[in-house]
Structure formats: C-alpha cells, structure tokens
Sequence to fold (884 residues):
Amino acid sequence: MRINFKHSDESLKKQLKKTHPFDLAELYPILSDDDKTRMINLIDASKRADMFVELDIDDQIELIHLLDLNEQKGLLRQLESDDLKEFISDIEDQNIQKEMISLLSKVRAKSIELLMQYDEDLAASIMSTEFLTIHQDMTIKEATNEVITTSKDSDYIDTIFVIDQDKKVVGVVDLKDLIIARPNKELKDIMNEEFQFVYEDATIEQAIQTVRDYDRNAIPVLDREDKMIGIVTGDDLFDEMIESHEYDYQKMALLKDHESTSTAITRSKQRLPWLMIAVVLNLLIASFLSIFEATLAQVTALVLFQPLILGMAGNIGTQSLAVTILGFHLEAFDAKEMPKQHVVKEVFIGLMNSFILGVLSFGFSFTFLTLIPTGNQQAIDIAWVVFIAVFSSMFISACMGVLIPIILKKYGSDPAVASGPIMTTINDVVALVIYFGVATIAFLS
Amino acid sequence: MLKELLLNGQKKEIENYIKETHAHDLSEIFFELTDHEKEQFYKHIQDEKLAEVVSYMETEQAAIILAEFDLEKQKRLVEMMEPDDAADIILELEEEEQDELVEALGEESDVVQLLSYDEDETGSAMTNLIVTANQDEDIKTVTKKMIKEAADVESINTIFIVDDEQHYLGVVPLKKLLKAQAPMEIKELIEKRAFVYDHDPITETLDKISNYDIYEMPVLDDEHHLLGMITFDDALDIYQEEAQEDFERLAALPETIDRSIVQTAIHRLPWLVVLLLISIPIAIVTSLYEETLAMVAILIVFQPLILDSAGNVATQTLAVTLKMFSTNEKGFAKNARREIITGMINGFVIGIIAFVMTLIFAYLNTSLTQEPLLISFVVGISLWLTVITAPVVAILIPLILKTLKFDPAVASGPFITTVIDVAALFIYFGLATMMLGGI
Fold:
C-alpha cells in the first residue's frame, strides 16, 4: 500500500477512500503533522472512527485534538462502547480524561463508567452495549420490521436477543432464521432457548472458550438476574486471544513487547532488564558454588557434568511449565481450583522421565570417565553421584514447572512469571546443592 | 443423563434429548459412553446431527469414529459436514480408507477439491457454502435467492457479489441489504473488502481477519474468481492451533494430545534424550581444559553465569526467528542484522556488569584467587563474546535446517541453549587458558 501525499487533495481523497482503516492507522504515526491534518480531514467520519480505534493511545489523543469540538463529539459518538471505554481508560492524564468524558452524552458517560468498573480480565470489560433486544410476544413480521427500522449502524444484529416482561433473556434468534421464517409465525416458535452466554463475572478466557466451543460470533453478557447488559463480539475476543498467546510466547523466551519492526536499540532496551536480573541472580549461584570449594578441588571430575545437570533440570522444567501454561489457554482445567488430575499426571511423567534420564546419565558419565580418567575417584562412584543429582534435580524442576504457575494463578498473579530467570536460578541452586552436596557427603566424609 | 436414557429410556425420550442438546456438548458426552451405549446412541441419532457431533470432535478422534461406519454411511456423513471440517477429518484417516472414501465422493465433490490444498494454505480451511449474487441483479431478487439458500449455507451475514465471469467485486452485508429499498441494483450497495488468495499462507490470512475484523473473508483464485470464504470460527480454531504449535516448539515439547500418562511421558522422552546426547561435547570441552581448571578453580564458580546468559540470549533470538518463519514474514536479513547488533550491545552491557560483580566477589573471597582483576577480565570478556555468538548461532541453526528442508523448529529453546553451551565453554576456558595460563 502506497499513498502519495504530494497529490492534490482530490486525488489523495480517492486513494484514502480505497484504503482500509487498519492500514490508515498503521500509516498515521509516521506522517508529518501537516499530512496528518490533511489525512483526517479528507476521510469521512465513520472511517476516521474506525481508524481511530486501531491507533495507540498517544496518537489517539493527538488526533482528537486536531479536530474541532463538534468533530470530537462526532468521533466519540461513532465509537462502539467497548472501544470508547478502552480509549478513555487508557488516558493517563486525568485532565484529558475528564475533558473526553465531558464530550459524551450523559447516558453514554454513565455506561462508560459502568464498563470501567469491571476488572481488566473479565469478559464484561470488553463488552459492547450496542445490541438489539426484542420482546418475545412479537410476530416474525413485527420483529423483522423492528430490526430493520430501529437498528443503528453500530448495533450487532447477526443474532437478536429475545426478552420477556422482566427484561430477562429467554432465547436468541439468528438473523438468518428470522429472515427465512414465515411472517405469520410467532417469534417464540423459532427462538432458540438453549443459547450460550457468560455472566458478568466470567473471565475473558471463559468467553473465548464459549465462542470457540459453540462457533458463535458473539455472546451475550448477563447479570445475575439474567438481564442482558452487553455482548462480547468475536473480533474483540480474537484480539485478546492473540495478545495473551503472544504474551506467553514472549515471556517464555524472555522477550518483552517484541515487534518485528523494532530497531536493534529498542530490542536491547527491552531485553536488557531480564538479562541483567539473570546476571545478578547468577552471583547467588556463584556464592553457593564457592561453599563447595573444597569438594570441587578434590573431586575435579564433578565439573565435567555440572552443565549437563543444570541443563537437563532446566529442560524438563521448561516442558512441564509449557504444558501447564497451555492448559490455562485451553481452559482444560479451572483456574480457581487446583487441577489435581493435571498435577498428578505431570508429576508422574516427571518422575518417570527423570528416572530414565538419570539412568542414561549414569551410563554416560561412567563410560566417559572410564575412557578419559579424570581425578582420583572411581568412575562408578562419580556416576552414582551424577545419577542422584540428575534424577532428583530433574524431578524437582518438573514439579516446580507444574506447581509454580498454578499457585501463581490461584493467588491472582501472572503464571507466565514462572518462565522468568528467577525460576531458572532456583532450579540451578537446587540442582547444584544436590549435586555437590551428595558429592561432599560421598567423598569428603 | 444421556447414559441413563440410553439404557432405560424410551425411544422418543432419547431422540428428543439428542435433538435438544447442542452438538458440541454431545461430542463431549460421547466419550463417556461405554461401547454398548455408543451403539444405542448411533441407533437414535439422525445422520445430520451425527455429522455435526463428529465435526465438533478433535480431528484424530473424529477420524477414528468415522472409520467405524461402512463406506455408504461415511459418504453420507461427510457430505453433510461443512467441507473444510470434512477435509480435515479425511486427512486423518488411514491411507487405504482415505482413498476409498475419496473415490466414493468423486472428483467433483467440494471436499475432494479442498483436499488438494496444502494444510498451510488458506484454501484448505475455506468453505464454499456462501451466498453469491451477480452485480446486475435487483436487491429483491437477491433477497429472495438468499432466503432460499439460507438453510444450505454457513452464513448469510455477507453476500458476495460477482460479475458474469464469477470475478469477485465486493460484498454486501446482510444488514445493508435488508435496509435498502427496492428497486435498486445490488451493485449500488457494494462494499470493497479485503480478500485473500487460495494459495496464501493461512497465517497471513489470519492476520488479515484479525486486523480488519472480518467475519467472512472472501477467498479468490489467481484470476480473481470467487472460490469461497474463511469463517470466523474456523479462523479462531486455526489460530489457537498455530499459537499452540509455536509455543510447544519453543519449549521442546512434542504436540500435546490427550493420551495416557505413560504414553505422554514416552512421547516427551526423545527430546530429553537428544538434549542429553548433545551435552556430551560439553563434558569433552571441559576435560580439555582440566589443567587450567585445576589451577584456577574460581573459573568454575562463574561457569553457570556464562552458560545461562548465552542460553538466555540465544533463546530470545530463536523465538524471534522461529516466529518469522512461522508467519512467513519478509526481511530475514534485516532481522538477523538487528539481532546481532542487539547481541553486541547487550553483551557489552552485561559484560561490564559481570566484570564489576566478579571483581567484588573475588575481593570478598580472597581464598579463591590471587588475581581478582585478571579473573574479572576473563569473565567479562567471555560473557561479551558468548553473547555476541549466541544470536549468530540462534539464527544460523534454524536457517540451515530450513535450507536443508528440515523443520526449522527442531531448534527449540533447550536445543539451542545446549549447542551454545559448547561454544560458550570454548570461549570461556580458552580465554582463561590464554590469559591465566602463565600463572
């Protein structure tokens, strides 16, 4: 996509018209101030709003201040309630936030305040309050008319929600079914009473799961009295899903906010904190190692297998950690409770694989020392120490990989923290203490 | 509930229950049934619902169940499924059964045509059950046609507009069509919308769907003929699978499928054994420098520091590189250059930190060495050098694997970490021998 700002307004307008708002939003931040003004004046109001939604908060604030008061109000009116809420709650400067809220109609301001009360990880925090409800006693014809005449452009009408006198949701009708039904039938006849929804205290993950399981494009959010308070649409859930997967992936790799467009300097800045923490933590390991100075001096062969033991403990820990974090995504187990089955399974797998790897390491270290004799100890004795160290440090690391993220999640922390350097250090220290501890007992006493 | 009904319930009750329950829920209950109950279940369920239930299962499991039926019924079920779901399931069948079924379905079948696409291509996930209209048709004609076809297509929320030669022109959202006043030609309502080609990588298509918020993404062939669409629910599922795969690769975790404990353990074992095997050179390198180590024992104390840092940096670069491969992003050389520069900067910074830390540590533990400054130099410089080497290795290994037509993701985080360990030890001990050898 190329847009030439040297062209006349007339031709620029044509080019902009052909461009998707998402692409305009990608383009906007790199434009000069003059071109920014030209661009937002040449696109129509609804496209401006669609593009606005895709921008970062700083660009959003800048853009809105390029408009006059009426245009500002118009822009905010065009936004869907969930996007508007996101914009307002992202503004850090309290004065600007107040200024923006003052531009909203009273009703709108109220509903935004309501949305802002919900926790970030709740589905209700990303819901939209623009939806269409229809009373259950209507005929098909009345209902169809209602949909066609009263729905606004921003309303989600692919599914229509049917309510009773008390405004409780009693069923849903897909627009498709409404269109093909015979006009003289009652809405009740074609309504689907078994419909999927989430309550206002459901998490985003639960909403994603529901949408995926039942192949819906949107689901209603109900309060505890079964009254409908909003809908969560699939596109918003998709964005959330991508964000949380990217987050976990980057955490696993000790990355932060990586974008393929970032320059080397940005990459350095983002990554250095973790690396520095890791370096400092390694001082701890160094201190631990110096405790065993005497053992190391006497049993020089121990050094040969130290990286192997640390590496293997780290590897199995990574595996069980990854399975557990994926489990959260797939909602294979409930976040609030201890997923007993998963823990038992992983612990057993840890036990089995640690044992097998322990035996293999035994064989390997014995062969190695027999071929290349090192130090004064018997090869078989060193091999036993290696076996014990590999087996127990791998097993402990596997257990930590499962338990730590689950415990973190249970107490409301971020389970992905478990993939950070602190965990690695703990695993390393545990492995070294076992390895050199056993060696000290075996050879020095 | 279903279990009891199947054993004691009346025919009518069972049939009603099956009819009223969502196919997704049935697909989960199904696996709790005994063989006898399953037989009962098959007797009472309509083919159409059964096809739906099977579509909701994991493809491997769905294939096993499909294979239980005779060819006639297999064909019937497959034809009732959405073509993209059916194609996924057929791919999981045993080769012989696959061939038989494909032959029974015939060349012309939608499913068989989808099978010709590679799994990574957009075409493999598309459905051709869509409503199309010619640009010259009147909105009234289109509305009638849509109502008539509604029951047989996946969605009528978008009507796809084509010209006389089936070239794609744009879409008309159902909402717009309903609000429009006849008489009017449908082309007046057309909206331009992003589209994808059938041979586009599926990951690119997912990007477009999420960026442009498109619930029904049109799929075209190279000559711009409209072939079908990708629906939103399929996009979500495919994204979930792709994201999971990326994550598993990074963690050296084989594909996670529900299996018994022992099977899962054995499934994960090969990687661990490979990692153990590639640790052997580490021991060999260390034994080469035995003399240096015996003289300068403090070197061992800082070994984990060097190895951990190298591993961390290598994993960072690897994650970025693998992501680029899996999303088919362009600009590989540029990315590589940036990663290497990043490594130089970061190596320099943490090299200095490590230098200072080592110095303090050595002064506090004078029993360990008489040469604190020299040791600190060795640690600092080795760290810098290894951190520069790490991104190079983490880019080269996946690249070489890819060029040799191996799966680049064989290089997982743990794999790359172990490889870089060998290089790091060479640098560290080598440098130490050079600088401290005379002591």
Summary: Chain A has three domains: 9-117, 126-241, 264-444. The first strand of chain A starts at residue 131 and ends at 135. Residues 340-371 of chain A form the longest helix (32 residues).
